[in-house]
Design a protein that fits this description.
Blueprint: H1 3-15, H2 17-40, H3 44-52, E1 57-61, H4 75-80, E2 101-105, E3 111-115, E4 121-128, E5 131-139, E6 146-156, E7 162-170, E8 176-186, E9 191-203, E10 207-220, E11 226-233, E12 245-249
Antiparallel strand pairs: 1-2, 2-3, 3-4, 4-5, 5-6, 6-7, 7-8, 8-9, 9-10, 10-11, 11-12
Length: 256
Amino acid sequence: MDFSSKQNELKAYLKSDDNIKICKPFIDESEKLEEIKNEYLTKCRGIYCDFSNHISKKEYASDSELHRGYYCPDIISDIVIGNCHRGKLYKRLTSKTKPCFEYGFDIENRLTVVNFPGYDDHEIILNDGKSNVGILFSEDCDNGNIEIRAVCKCMYDDKMRIKEYVLANYWSDGELDELTVEKYYYDEVGIKSVDYFRFCYISLDEKYPCLDYKQYTFEHNHDGYLKRYTETDLTEPKLYDLYNVSVHEVTKKYKL
């Protein structure tokens, strides 16, 4: 099958009722986060100031590929996506230290504020028991305009292990860039599997919803550390004759 035929097949699938049905829960989820974004557009600056005035402890960290750096709840990116660099905490600051993240904790030792030194970017974290919502925003110093760049939601189980992590990134015009959803499952040893979804809209002759779906299953060694994981690509449609299951060794030391 040539490229144009595959493109036509993809377009036909994206237009299909099957694709719309599969994407519907993620369209609904993106709309819920859109509501949060709109609600806090005029509130986030005031909440940020209030949280900043009640910080009891600060910590600093180096650069990272994760949106919240060292304290980002996104586990799967850290483990499987090229061993994504989480960064490290600084034990102390010196004249040569150039932190990329400044974390602010409240009196109950909950992370409530993240600053990005050198940038007009901030994140507020709204904690509510077994869940929290993070709102990442930028402020234009010239006109005071607020732009919300991302909204994330993290939910935990009774053992305070991450159960679901959802992140919506937005373009500068406020439109959705992409939505990622991670669902975590555990057994008596530790983390058992993760369902990883990436949702976005593809512009062809018009905008179509599109969903990528990968599943990760994990093995532990006799000491309880992660040993390897299997990645299975469950994205539809299968347009290319590629082997969709691969096994990878875990090269960092994780006990999850």
